[in-house]
Design a protein that fits this description.
Elements: H1 20-30, E1 39-42, H2 46-57, E2 62-65, H3 73-76, H4 108-121, E3 126-127, E4 130-138, E5 143-150, E6 153-157, E7 161-164, E8 186-189, E9 203-207, H5 211-222, E10 226-231, E11 236-239, H6 240-248, H7 254-258, H8 263-271, H9 275-292, H10 294-302, H11 315-323, E12 327-330, H12 333-338, E13 343-346, E14 349-352, E15 356-359, E16 364-366, E17 369-372, H13 380-386, H14 389-395, E18 428-430, H15 435-453
Parallel strand pairs: 1-2, 1-7, 2-3, 7-18, 8-17, 9-10, 9-17, 10-13, 11-12
Antiparallel strand pairs: 4-5, 5-6, 14-15, 15-16
């Protein structure tokens, strides 16, 4: 990068000279209208922004399409207590690391502001207030035809490559329980939950027991609500402190940086372990955590919480890679459960009544608000919405390793399903994951796209077969 930085100033005389700003304004005005982008990225969260920055540095004309008003709004609009559960050393974006005074665990609004700043200084062509309406690939022309609504103006974009960076947590999985239509209170998916301010003194039932459910329950309790968590299946819990010490500390910590392991080196070390054997490295970590936190786990189980350690005892990160769900990094909510301040009820939902939630054992939980912290669907759901169900089925399920563990059906894939590589739908790609993955894998996806723009032969050893539709 440093050796190829632009001059900025243009020395000498030029009666038609344009300033840097004027050139940038010309580009922003023309791209998508007089000049077509080579790539379009649907989704302007951290994934789309990181990939856009990589492509910008590689000289690949790109437009990022985002429905929100500003970069970072996908973070700002989440519940107000949301913070990253990963530490700062794990979460840097490409090219511009967080400053030395950045919090260890980033509050959502700081992340939103950072993404907005980053988008501007990296000079990304970011179309906010823009919604993709339809997309189809024109085989004769070898390009996509993507119709978008750009702040009320219909625009047709014709890129060669289309990337979905809509995020693992962007397609809400809203359950359909009997009686939901008759509930007299308020209902919302966790992604729409605004925070606790309006619910002081109210009875709230949160259905779910993973990260969002815990965060929302804790904030509601602190805000004065009477909150009950409904746990429908086991959850893996690990406290933040031992996870940082035993799970991430050797690669992503201040100590690691002082030992000469910067983020790039840490990423390469971590990526050097094949997925086939990664669980073998993870099991001893979680056995150690189980040992040092034995009293904590005993207290949780005494409170009635149903725990698991993953299908093979490999803990949080393998659950994340395999299914993207089923865990909580504890930053305080577990103690509220232990103390009975967050009420806990295990069981299946039988129906929603006019006044609350009825469980299969006959228990009725009165509620003014029901929050469905029920997770998110496969990213190919966005392909179904935009391109069509046939294309989504051709791609199949997105995410997972094929480990044949719960919610990650076999056969073994060896890589993340359909992520960062060619899919069964030609010229259609997926990018996403947490900030670490958005940073690391954006480079390899960007290089594949750059090679195609430059007509460099890019033979694919073999496209991933479709075994699961992901519906």
């Amino acid at each position: 990068m440093s050796e190829r930085r632009p001059m900025g100033a243009e020395h000498g005389q030029d009666t038609n000279r344009k300033s840097w700003l004027e050139k940038r304004e010309d580009e922003a005005r023309d791209l998508g209208y007089g000049i077509q982008p080579f790539t379009v990225i649907i989704g302007g969260g951290q994934g789309g922004i990181a990939l856009g920055a990589r492509l910008r540095q590689l000289g690949v004309p790109t437009i990022i399409v985002e429905k929100n008003d500003r970069p970072g709004d996908s973070w700002r609009k989440r519940y107000k207590s949301l913070c990253l559960h990963d530490p700062v050393w794990y979460d840097h974006l490409p090219y511009i690391p967080f400053p030395a005074n950045w919090p260890v665990f980033s509050p959502k609004d700081k992340i939103g502001d950072w993404l907005e700043m980053y988008t501007r200084v990296m000079e990304l062509n970011y179309w906010s207030r823009t919604t993709a309406k339809s997309a189809r690939f024109d085989q004769e022309k070898g390009e996509w035809e993507i119709v978008v609504d750009r702040d009320g103006e219909e625009v047709t974009l014709r890129p060669k490559e289309l990337i979905f960076a809509t995020g693992m947590s962007a397609k809400p999985n809203m359950p359909q329980f009997p009686g939901m239509d008759r509930f007299k209170g308020e209902q919302q998916h966790s992604s729409q939950h605004p925070g606790p301010d309006a619910y002081a003194g109210k009875k709230v039932v949160v259905i779910g027991s993973n990260n969002s459910a815990h965060d929302i329950c804790a904030a509601l309790y602190e805000g004065g609500a009477d909150v009950t968590m409904v746990q429908r299946s086991t959850t893996h819990i690990v406290r933040s402190e031992p996870l940082m010490k035993h799970g991430l500390g050797s690669l992503y910590s201040e100590q690691a940086v002082k030992s000469g392991i910067d983020t790039h080196k840490a990423d390469m070390i971590f990526a050097s372990i094949p997925y086939r054997i990664l669980h073998e490295f993870q099991i001893p970590i979680y056995e150690k955590i189980k040992e040092v936190d034995a009293d904590f786990y005993a207290a949780l189980e005494k409170a009635g919480f149903q725990l698991d350690w993953g299908a093979d005892g490999s803990g949080l990160f393998m659950k994340y890679l395999r299914r993207g769900s089923g865990y909580y990094i504890d930053v305080g909510a577990s103690q509220l459960i232990i103390d009975g301040k967050i009420k806990l009820k295990a069981g299946q939902v039988e129906e929603i009544t006019e006044t609350g939630v009825r469980l299969a054992d006959g228990t009725e939980l009165p509620a003014d608000l029901i929050v469905y912290a029920t997770g998110y669907g496969s990213m190919n759901g966005w392909v179904a919405d935009l391109v069509g169900q046939d294309a989504a089925d051709m791609v199949g399920k997105v995410w997972g390793l094929g480990s044949d563990t719960p919610k990650d059906p076999g056969p073994w894939e060896g890589e993340q399903r359909n992520m960062w590589k060619p899919t069964q739908v030609e010229h259609l790609w997926f990018h996403g994951g947490n900030l670490h993955q958005s940073r690391h894998y954006s480079l390899y996806l960007a290089l594949q796209l750059k090679a195609r723009m430059e007509n460099i032969p890019t033979p694919v050893w073999g496209l991933q077969e479709t075994h699961h539709l992901g519906r």
